[in-house]
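Chapter review: from sequence to fold.
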Amino acid sequence: MPVVEKNPPPVAAPKDTAPPPDVPPLVAAEPTATMQSPPPTPEQVQAAWDAFAEYYKQNGKPLVVSMLTWKPVTFQYPVITHALRTNATDADAFKEVRNELLGFLKKQLNHSSLTLETIEVAATEAGASPKIYTNTDKFNFLAEQNPLLNDLRNLLGLDIE
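The token string follows.
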């Protein structure tokens, strides 16, 4: 039966050896100034955004195109802000393409520091007309656009039902 030592002999510590003379010593590198391209203009950002929307238009994704082209983006370097309608459909569609869109914009505009933010805007705040169901609603809507309709209604003695 082989004999197993319970306490192996201690291992000798390695001797300090100097590196060969041809190897430079490790020194922390000084940060070097890198050439950063100038920030993109809002027009360049919008053009890249539209190119992305066009890609989805060609691939038959009208919901994504509608969500992307509903309102122009705003740009204050490095933040690109996109207005979304306050509905779950647009929010879900944006979640699906957000990372791809941001990667596309960073690559197209050659800026890795760009970020993407969204703000929710109610459709009626953004200039969309409210739903009109009754004759009174129709008249009031038209009277807001042309106040002289109220004068005409009073002059002719018309009632709105």
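Two observations follow directly from the output. Residues 19-35 have pLDDT under 50 and may be disordered. The longest helix spans residues 88-109.
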